[in-house]
């Protein structure tokens, strides 16, 4: 239960079309992540699925039934908002109970479900507090709790971790992934952070200006980006992309090589450059190399530590089997 | 700007501020004090500040002579009734403007405010005639409606200001949770906006309580509120300072106390959120 | 940012407020327009038919018209200037560190809650009465001849009374605005070597501009309509007859509804000129 199909969906605000015709199927039980730079339409797309916005043309089907004109409440979806959107005047218990009350569920069943959700989410001790008395991570759990008690056909997450600090974000990321493992319910997750997308998704949908640039598993996107945009967007640090004569040597209008696929030598190699800043993380070292003639700066990732200094001459050699080539339109050449 | 200053500086500030504060408050203080004097003490020369024989007889006389209770009741009914009626009309309107804004929302809001600027006197006679036709002259119901209408723009504005501070996401969450529009307004929006709604009610109550054009011109006996009660003291009873003071104190006391409690919220409401 | 369903619900929910206000505006307005073109004397023959623009011409050519317009503007402008200037000074004072700030604020705000009829009566009798008023006592104490305030200096007296009522409002709003000023800005200016007066003109005053426009707007709305203060104190005598009061007298005292209605139309036009001007300012303030 929880297959969502979008057929030729478009959305316009006034004269501005923010989603051009779009087709997409999200399989039952899949963890799908919509990712893209801000303003790419990913949140709008989620709100269209939720029913918080009308689609301009096209159809949305949930479990094979047309849901295009259904109000949000009737779609059987639950949503976790960026700001958590907890009801500040209600206790945690009442927050979680609200959707069940709206569904006119009986008190005993509501109680049972709240107890269940609270123990799963470690909220048992906080049930009688107000949202204002909770930390960011706890609020996040309450928002998730409010979503899971309804046992929805699918969960919708709208950048749920963007308000948390870095350490908590990693923890919550794991919790949400574990939740998905346990519930096996369809989840649609919107984020601008490609790390979240890579770590959590079964399927990533990369969006730009309302267009789907590529749909695929995280590793597909990493290894076979369909175009320059996806290549640059997925992966951290970013792929080095260069054009001109150097790219033609490898058979493309432009070519790209990920920082982790470049070998380094102090004596010889394909490209020669000067070390700019070297970032030592301990486990890895990121070296920013200038004056290579490829791009303003080439980033190289070395496992472990290496001792280089600002201004040192350095030689770089790409691993040829990891080279990505693109044509004049920016599309991948196999 | 609470910066550390020298004690001397703070002392000067305190002295100056208290002096000005008391000067501004003095007419009210003097009125209250005079209401406890005898008529002779009230006009004594030189004036007596505190050293007089406190008496309550003025209050007794005023109550007896002019049926204060009825005027008070009318004030409460007119101010309270118009406030509640206004809220019933304004809450849905403010919800629409705050959460489903369109290109025209701002124009509608400004238009509403501009109706507030129509000179009442310009339309006094038509309203007077309509009231006679409808049998509303000197009735509480008529005044409740008029007070509601003249303050409606301000109520809508204030509520709009408060509602806009409630994140739309919370209302959307309620929608996702299966709440109908009515449930959304009743269980989520209203409880969250209680402080705003309360201060809107307060301000509206105060404005309606003090309004003196329509209450003086559309009432005679039955529906006359405290504004009319006081206006009857303009002459010659106005020369009886102690009784005038007692009547004045009775007319302003309820609102003065209400106003003091709500002064903070009033700023935000009255400036349409433009000043925080 | 919404669905069709919520947009139609919104229209429905806005309906009552819009329709009520539209009715409240249009019905009396149309009636006033109608009367303004007729000879209508309720106690002397009632409605006597069309009279064209006679009422308009008579109202303007009456010797009372221009003085009334002038009086209106003087009162509005006088009160605005006094309350804004004193309000700024008072707000700055109240913002300084002191003991008992809360109580002082309560003292200062109090006049705003006093019924206009009450404040007019109290001032008229207990302060401005030439025999027993407190001012008369004060003047005699200094050996001066007591002044008949409301007849010899009627306009300044009324402006004073009204300013006393509105000063608290201006102060409260300006104080709130000052308190929202980022103290780092002032400290930066101090570090840059700006003296007190410069800090006031270059930082505090610009920061207050928005609050000042709001004060001007709200006060103008209410000041154009002042009635009780004049009704109770001078009854429009001694040069205190505002346009509103003149119309009031034509309609209710001389029972000339046609003439009064023509005056009403003038007042509405005047108010609209002020309104358009003010709405622009508020509209701009709403944008951000």
UniProtKB/TrEMBL annotation, chain A:
The keyword ATP-binding applies. It holds the Pfam family TOBE_2. GO terms for cellular component: ATP-binding cassette (ABC) transporter complex, substrate-binding subunit-containing; maltose transport complex. Residues 4-234 form the ABC transporter domain. PROSITE patterns: ABC_TRANSPORTER_1, ABC_TRANSPORTER_2. It comes from the Bacteria. Keywords: ATP-binding, Nucleotide-binding, Transport. One of its GO terms (molecular function) is ABC-type maltose transporter activity. The keyword ATP-binding applies. Belongs to the ABC transporter superfamily. PANTHER family: MALTODEXTRIN IMPORT ATP-BINDING PROTEIN MSMX (PTHR43875), MALTOSE_MALTODEXTRIN IMPORT ATP-BINDING PROTEIN MALK (PTHR43875:SF3). This is Sn-glycerol-3-phosphate ABC transporter ATP-binding protein UgpC. It comes from Marivita cryptomonadis. The gene is ugpC.
From TrEMBL, chain B:
The chain crosses the membrane at residues 12-33, 71-96, 108-131, 143-163, 184-207, 213-233, 240-261. One of its GO terms (biological process) is transmembrane transport. It comes from the Bacteria. Residues 72-262 form the ABC transmembrane type-1 domain. Keywords: Cell membrane, Membrane, Transmembrane, Transmembrane helix, Transport. The keyword Metal-binding does not apply. One of its GO terms (cellular component) is plasma membrane. Its main location: membrane. The keyword Chaperone does not apply. It is a multi-pass membrane protein. It is found in: Cell membrane. PROSITE patterns: ABC_TM1. Belongs to the binding-protein-dependent transport system permease family. This is Carbohydrate ABC transporter permease. It comes from Marivita cryptomonadis. The lineage of its organism: Bacteria, Pseudomonadati, Pseudomonadota, Alphaproteobacteria, Rhodobacterales.
UniProtKB/TrEMBL annotation, chain C:
The lineage of its organism: Bacteria, Pseudomonadati, Pseudomonadota, Alphaproteobacteria, Rhodobacterales. It is a multi-pass membrane protein. It holds the Pfam family BPD_transp_1. Gene3D superfamilies: MetI-like (1.10.3720.10). It is found in: Cell membrane. Belongs to the binding-protein-dependent transport system permease family. Residues 69-278 form the ABC transmembrane type-1 domain. Keywords: Cell membrane, Membrane, Transmembrane, Transmembrane helix, Transport. GO terms for cellular component: plasma membrane. This is Sugar ABC transporter permease. Its main location: membrane. SUPFAM superfamilies: MetI-like. GO terms for biological process: transmembrane transport. It comes from the Bacteria. The chain crosses the membrane at residues 12-37, 73-94, 106-123, 158-178, 214-238, 258-282. InterPro entries: ABC_transporter_permease, MetI-like, MetI-like_sf.
């Amino acid at each position: 239960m929880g297959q969502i199909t979008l057929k030729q969906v478009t959305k316009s605000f006034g004269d501005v079309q923010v989603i051009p015709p779009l087709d997409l199927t999200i399989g039952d039980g899949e963890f799908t992540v919509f990712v893209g730079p801000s303003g790419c339409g990913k949140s709008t797309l989620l709100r269209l699925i939720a029913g918080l916005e009308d689609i301009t043309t096209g159809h949305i089907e949930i479990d094979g039934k047309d849901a295009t004109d259904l109000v949000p409440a009737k779609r059987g979806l639950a949503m976790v908002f960026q700001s958590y959107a907890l009801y500040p005047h209600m206790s945690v218990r009442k927050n979680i109970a609200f959707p069940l009350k709206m569904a006119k569920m009986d008190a005993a069943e509501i109680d049972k479900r709240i107890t269940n959700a609270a123990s799963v989410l470690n909220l048992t001790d906080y049930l009688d507090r107000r949202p204002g008395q909770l930390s960011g991570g706890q609020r996040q759990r309450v928002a998730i709790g409010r979503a899971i008690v309804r046992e929805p056909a699918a969960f919708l997450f709208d950048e749920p971790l963007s308000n948390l600090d870095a350490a908590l974000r990693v923890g919550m990321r794991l919790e949400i992934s574990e939740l998905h493992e346990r519930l096996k319910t369809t989840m649609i997750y919107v984020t601008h952070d490609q790390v979240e997308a890579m770590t959590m998704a079964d399927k990533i949908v990369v969006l730009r200006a309302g267009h789907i640039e590529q749909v695929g598993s995280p590793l597909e996107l990493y290894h076979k980006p369909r175009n320059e945009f996806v290549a640059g967007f997925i992966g951290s640090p970013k792929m080095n992309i260069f054009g001109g004569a150097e790219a033609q040597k490898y058979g493309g209008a432009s070519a790209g090589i990920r920082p982790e696929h470049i070998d380094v030598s102090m004596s010889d190699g394909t490209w020669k450059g000067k070390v700019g800043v070297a970032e030592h993380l301990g486990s890895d070292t990121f070296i920013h190399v200038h004056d290579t003639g490829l791009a303003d700066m080439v980033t190289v990732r070395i496992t472990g530590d290496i001792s280089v200094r600002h201004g040192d001459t350095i030689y770089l050699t790409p691993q040829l089997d990891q080279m990505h080539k693109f044509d004049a339109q920016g599309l991948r050449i196999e | 700007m609470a910066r550390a200053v020298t004690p001397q500086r703070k002392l000067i500030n305190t002295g100056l501020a208290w002096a000005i504060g008391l000067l501004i408050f003095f007419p009210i203080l003097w009125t209250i004090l005079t209401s406890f004097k005898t008529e002779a003490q009230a006009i004594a020369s030189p004036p007596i500040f505190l050293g007089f024989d406190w008496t309550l007889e003025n209050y007794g006389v005023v109550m007896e002579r002019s049926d204060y209770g009825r005027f008070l009741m009318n004030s409460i009914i007119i101010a309270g009734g118009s406030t509640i009626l206004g809220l019933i009309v304004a809450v849905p309107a403010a919800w629409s403007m705050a959460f489903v804004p369109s290109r025209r929302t701002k124009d509608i809001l400004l238009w509403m405010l501009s109706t507030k600027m129509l000179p009442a006197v310009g339309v006094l006679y038509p309203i007077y005639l309509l009231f006679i036709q409808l049998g509303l002259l000197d009735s509480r119901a008529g005044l409740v409606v008029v007070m509601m209408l003249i303050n409606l723009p301000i109520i809508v504005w204030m509520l709009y200001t408060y509602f806009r501070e409630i994140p739309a996401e919370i209302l959307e969450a309620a929608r996702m949770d299966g709440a109908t529009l009515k449930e959304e307004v009743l269980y989520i929006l209203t409880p969250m906006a209680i402080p705003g709604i309360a201060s809107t009610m307060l301000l509206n109550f105060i404005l309606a309580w003090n309004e003196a054009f329509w209450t003086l011109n559309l009432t005679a006996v039955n529906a006359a509120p405290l504004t009319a009660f006081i206006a009857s003291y303009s002459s010659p009873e106005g020369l009886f300072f102690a009784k005038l003071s007692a009547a004045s104190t009775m007319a302003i006391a309820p609102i003065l106390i209400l106003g003091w409690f709500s002064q903070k919220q009033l700023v935000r409401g009255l400036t349409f959120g433009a000043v925080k | 940012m919404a669905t069709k369903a919520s947009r139609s619900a919104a229209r429905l929910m806005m309906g009552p407020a819009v329709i009520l206000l539209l009715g409240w505006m249009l019905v009396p307005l149309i009636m006033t327009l109608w009367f303004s073109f007729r000879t209508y004397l309720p106690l002397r023959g009632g409605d006597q038919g069309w009279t064209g623009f006679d009422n308009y011409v008579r109202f303007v050519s009456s010797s009372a018209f221009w003085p009334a317009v002038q009086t209106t503007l003087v009162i509005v402008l006088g009160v605005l200037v006094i309350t804004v200037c004193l309000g700024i000074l008072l707000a700055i004072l109240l913002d300084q560190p002191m003991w008992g700030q809360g109580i002082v604020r309560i003292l200062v705000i109090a006049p705003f809650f006093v019924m206009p009829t009450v404040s007019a009566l109290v001032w008229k009798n207990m302060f401005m009465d030439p025999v027993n008023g407190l001012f008369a006592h004060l003047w005699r104490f200094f050996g001066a001849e007591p002044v008949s305030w409301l007849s010899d200096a009627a306009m300044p007296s009324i402006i004073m009374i009204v300013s006393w009522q509105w000063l608290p409002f201006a102060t409260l709003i300006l104080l709130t605005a000052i308190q929202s000023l980022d103290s780092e800005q002032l400290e930066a200016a101090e570090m840059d070597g700006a003296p007190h007066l410069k800090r006031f003109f270059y930082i505090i005053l610009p920061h207050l501009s928005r609050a000042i426009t709001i004060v001007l707007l709200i006060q103008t709305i209410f000041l154009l309509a002042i009635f009780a203060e004049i009704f109770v104190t001078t009854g429009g005598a001694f040069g205190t007859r505002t346009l509103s009061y003149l119309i009031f007298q034509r309609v209710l005292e001389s029972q000339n509804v046609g003439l009064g209605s023509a005056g009403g139309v003038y007042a509405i036009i005047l108010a609209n000129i002020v309104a358009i001007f003010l709405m622009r300012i508020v509209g701009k303030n709403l944008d951000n």
